[in-house]
Amino acid sequence: MIPYGRQDIDQSDINAVIDVLKSDFLTQGPVGPRFEQAVAEKVDAARGVSMNSATSALHVACMALDLGPGDLVWTSPNTFVASANCARYCGADVDFVDIDRQSFNMCPVKLEEKLKVAKTAGRLPKIVIPVHLCGYSCDMQAIHQLAGTYGFKIIEDASHAVGGKYLDMMVGSCAYSDIAIFSFHPVKIITSAEGGMAMTNDPQLADRMERLRSHGITRDPDLMTHAADGPWYYQQLELGYNYRMTEMQAALGLQQMARLDPFVAARHALAERYDTLLGDLSVRVPKRRADIYSAFHLYVIQVEDVARHRSVFEALRENGIGVNLHYIPVHLQPYYRTFGFAEGDFPVAEDYYSRAISIPLYPAMTHEMQDSVVAALSGALSA
Ligand SMILES: *Cc1c(COP(=O)(O)O)cnc(C)c1O
User: Fold this and answer.
1) For each of the chain's 383 residues, which pLDDT tens digit applies?
2) Hey, which of 159, 181, 191, 245 would you mutate to test ligand 1's pocket, going by the most ligand atoms within 8 Å of its Cβ?
3) How far is the CA of 132 from the centre of ligand 1 (A)?
4) Which of 45, 53, 253, 377 could bridge to 199 as Cys pair (CB 3.0-4.6 Å)?
């Protein structure tokens, strides 16, 4: 089976984890902050707050922006459920903005139309969570401009996009957002096994996210309600969680950072080769703007003939090609239907779902493997 994605672990990664296991700290040691600093420097953000997953980081980011019951969050229907669930953890309501046909990302034109209606109805979102699908950045300038007009905060779900660029900036620089979230799950661009990180340029948001990932506890005397009882003293200021990343995870992530650029370059080379190899097949390949450099977490094709979608998918799996589908529209999940969402609510995301197939793409993939994917796809399409 050629999987749709796979981690790339070398001896230096293994050694880094073993070194931590022999050291004094398995958690809350020196490696976590080094990993945070390495990612922050790479993407040109002031701070990074590591967590045990991107899902935890999304939750804490919403909390740090004071999201609560009665508030509203908008995200893309074409994403993993975690992009919406983070709002529900805070008791907030969720709605969606349909995607753009070219980028598969949240459409800024539809966002503006929906904001106009919401303003009249007095029900504007507190936070908008654009998702950089496949590692290809949303149109952040347009979304940021609307945030200024309509007064919402922006959390980028950049789970797919570490190593990608928007205009001349690294995704995660937060030039057009309050917080950006990376995932280090093994199928993503770099891995810490499980893990995530929240990037921000706002030191107060970063401090608060650090507290929230560790029970809401502080040891900073300036934040305490009264002078410390003694050197052992700490205070819990608000309700937080244990969302910390271990030192083994941080060591793996830090070591992987050294290969971030080669990983993304390898993904690009393979994606461009796919563009050429798939040119004559009856599938749509991802289009991209010259000024957005995708991290190419995923390479998604769309079959022209909707009626053939399932049979092509099944034929690929039967031929040992581990294809997948990103994503089932979130609003059609049974849990979200309980809030009244139904088929037809977000037609572009639903049309995309009826055609999309993620075909294998990862740095260690060879041209031979890629050729066999294309041959299997060609066979499935002409069967
Ligand atoms: C993977 C992913 C997440 C969740 O990441 P975890 O690190 O597994 O919690 C959230 N959003 C998107 C778009 C993802 O692809």
Assistant:
1) 999 999 999 999 999 999 999 999 999 999 999 999 999 999 999 999 999 999 999 999 999 999 999 999 999 999 999 999 999 999 999 999 999 999 999 999 999 999 999 999 999 999 999 999 999 999 999 999 999 999 999 999 999 999 999 999 999 999 999 999 999 999 999 999 999 999 999 999 999 999 999 999 999 999 999 999 999 999 999 999 999 999 999 999 999 999 999 999 999 999 999 999 999 999 999 999 999 999 999 999 999 999 999 999 999 999 999 999 999 999 999 999 999 999 999 999 999 999 999 999 999 999 999 999 999 999 999 98
2) 159
3) 11
4) 45
Q: Is 145 in contact with 17 (CB distance < 8 Å)?
A: no
Distance from the alpha carbon of residue 195 to the mean position of ligand 1, in angstroms: 9
336 Cα: distance to centroid of ligand 1 (angstroms): 18
Q: From 378, 363, 383, 380, select the one nearest 3 (Cα to Cα).
A: 363
What is the Å distance from ligand 1's center to 80 Cα? Answer: 6
> pTM for the complete prediction?
0.98
DSSP string of 286-343, one letter each residue: ----TTEE---S-EEEEES-GGGHHHHHHHHHHTTEE-B-S---GGGSHHHHTTT--T
> Residues near ligand 1 with C-beta < 6 Å?
53-55, 79-80, 82-83, 131, 157, 159-160, 183, 185, 196
Are the C-beta atoms of 361 and 4 separated by less than 8 Å? Answer: yes
Query: Which atom number of ligand 1 is nearest to the Cα of residue 195?
Result: 7
Q: Indicate which atom in ligand 1 lies nearest the CA of residue 79.
A: 13
45: which DSSP letter? Answer: -
DSSP of 62-117: HHHTT--TT-EEEE-SSS-THHHHHHHHTT-EEEE-PBPTTT-SBPHHHHHHHHHH
